[in-house]
Amino acid sequence: MLWPMFAIALGFLGLVVLAVPAVRVFVAVRRLSAQVARASGRIADASEDLERAAADLARAGRAARP
């Protein structure tokens, strides 16, 4: 009866050892996804600014033609 209990205890410890890095990876992925979302928002804002600036530049170029 000792060996089956020992095997069950080792199996449980093995699962705990694997669960700790899994939780750390989960937390790191959540942080990374939040950073990607922020960067995506910044890129969208910058592209809108660039689009507006290009439109203004095109209007100014048309107005400067003789």
What labels describe this entry?
66 residues, 0% strand, single chain, rod-shaped, mainly alpha
Describe the structure.
- The structure is a single chain.
- This protein has 66 residues and is mainly α.
- It has one helix at 2-64.
- The termini are far apart.
Query: What gap, in angstroms, lies between the N and C termini?
Result: 99 Å
Radius of gyration: 29 Å
Q: Report the major sheet.
A: none
Helix content: over 70%
- The SSE string, one letter per element, is H
Please tell me the overall pLDDT: 92
Provide a concise account of the structure shown.
By secondary structure, this protein is mostly helical. It is 95% helix and 0% strand.
Question: How would the blueprint of this fold be written?
Answer:
Layout lengths: L1 H63 L2
